Every structure is written in structure tokens, then in C-alpha cells.
Fold this protein.
Amino acid sequence: MKNELEALLEESAASCQSREQETFDILIGNRKDLVLFGAGGLGRKVLAALRSAGIEPLSFADNKLAGQIVYGVSVLTPVEAAKEFGDSATFVVTIWAAWADTMQEQVAGLRALGCKSVVSFIPLLWKYPHLLPHTQIDAPSHVLEQKDEIRRCYELWADEDSRREFVAQLRWRLFGDFAGLNPAVPNQYWQRDLIEIGDNAIFADVGAFDGDTIGQFVSFTRGKFRSVYAFEPDARNLSALRDRLSAMPEETRSRIHVFDRAVAEAEYEVSFQGGAGVSSTVGGGAEIIKCVALDQALPEPPNCIKYDIEGFELLGLSGTRKIIAEKRPVLVVCAYHLQNHIWRIPLLIHSFNQNYKFYLRPHGQIWETVCYAIPA
């Protein structure tokens, strides 16, 4: 795998920047008229970029919004759009979310309808870099600017599965290669071949959402745990979490402690975009919430900590520096929210404590990729 890694990293950043600008045009060839498959947030973002370049798409294709006009563009069903434009236009898949079908499934579905040219939105974003970053998607040249960090991270992975996944994810970041990604592994966060915690475990759930991971933890431990500390700043998620807890036996519920706080590297207030379920995130919203650092907020050191905080993972880990250095809990960290998290998260943990083994597992198509840091 190391030879494959080096082959990916041998391209210069300058060469990669040229490739970023050329790839989309090469892929669409003579079919320069565009149909955007997906009229949601990403589709509208792409529409604005195209218009800034003087390009007007023929239509959107979207089953849910068919028959409407979105920002002045007609929305057809995929069947209608394929019938009218399938031979002549390029269909750009502008749907990207954890709940969506895989990119291969979306492309295959459009091809089955008769669309001759179908591409993902990623090369189009490269062509218009002012749209970047978009979640974990960023310019490939940024990857190549961090070669030394990537090489250091590669040496941290403890097994061949992790090294293979790391290289596959780098290839995707560099080339948008969906076909080279590995199949998703079930049981996100709770990999029994990696995680062993005793009957008196203390678990910190950072980004507790609606309590789904707490429910999984209770099942994983068969209810034999000491305590859970859950951190969730979104009011709607908190309400759902408390509803879930209310259905649990009192003996279990009494050991679960909920905090309406975000987790970061220190205690401070920050703006927040709430009400978006799993995608509620720090920054840019009208709401103000309080952040805490786990080193100060936890009344007892945990055996296991899960972080899923929408791009705040590095800050959350930084606020757990003392616990990681002194207590070495199992760390289960989402590593997919930003392009470089897949290498910066293990490197940061390693800088706090060198007595960890690192594993990388995919639990979705890029979405839900998790770094497992297991005490050696």
C-alpha cells in the first residue's frame, strides 16, 4: 500500500491545480449543456456558480421538487429530463448527503434512464474553487500541499485494512474516485474487534444527537456501565434525546447525564446553526451556545469518548488533551467532516499520547468514516 500512497503523492501541486481546472471540461466533452440532478442546497450552490460564469443550465431534475421553478430554473422529474435532454446534455449529480444513495447508484440510475453523459458534482466544484470547501470536498492540490503530514499519518495505522482505507480515501480526495472506495462496515462506533471496555465503563458522547449512540452503548455493554455523559447543544436534538431516555428503565436512565453544551478546546460562547438534526453545527447561526472542554467539564475520567461534532473534532480533542495524555480512553472520532481530518485527527491524538493504535473504518460512502484510537 505504501507504493500506492507514494504514487498518489508524486503529482506536484502546480500540476494538480491545472488538472482541477481541466477535468470537468474533459469529462463532459461536446455535451456542454447541463442538467443538474438535485435541486436542493448543493444544486442551488452550483447554479449560482454557473451563472457567475455566464452558464445557464437547461433544467433541474428532482423527483421531490418536480413541477416547480427553483431560482428561475424549471424542475423536471428525472424521467422527463432524461427523455428531453438525455442524448444531448451532461447530467451533473448535485446530491451529496449521508442519507442519499451512493454516487455510483445515482449515476447508474440516470444512465438507466438513457442519459449518455453523467458526472458527479466534484469536478465542477474544482473548476469553480470559490465554492470550496464543501463539507469534506476541497481542492485536490490542498492534499498535495500536506504530503509530509499524510506520510506521517500513514505510519500510524495499525492494520492493513486501515492503510488500504486511508489510501482509498486519499485517492477519492485527489481524483473523486468513488469506484475505488471500500464497502461500508456495519456497527459504526461499536467495533467489537477493536473496542473492549469493562462492566464499569464511563462513556462521554460528544455530539449526542438524539441519543442513538447512547442506545447503542447501552446495548454494547448489556447495560453494565457506570455512567454516560452526553453533550448536545441543539435544542431539538436534546428534546429527542430526552424522549429516548424516558423510554429506558429508570435504573439505566439515572446513570446518564445530559449537558446542553458544545465541546471545544476551552470554555466560551459561539454562534450556532441549530434545528438541522445531525447537521446542526457551530458557526454562522443566530443562536449563541456555550462550549466546554472535556478536561474541565467531566466529573470523572471516561473509558471511552465518541466525537461527532460536525467539523469541530480537532477542537474537541484539544479540550481533552489532559484526559488523553493521562488516562488513555478509547477514542472514537468522526474523521470525514473536513478534507484533512482523516490525517490530522490521528496526528493530533498521537501528539498528546504516543501509546495508541489507530484504525480507520468506513461506515458509509465517505460519510461516517471513523478513526478509532485504541490504547496500546
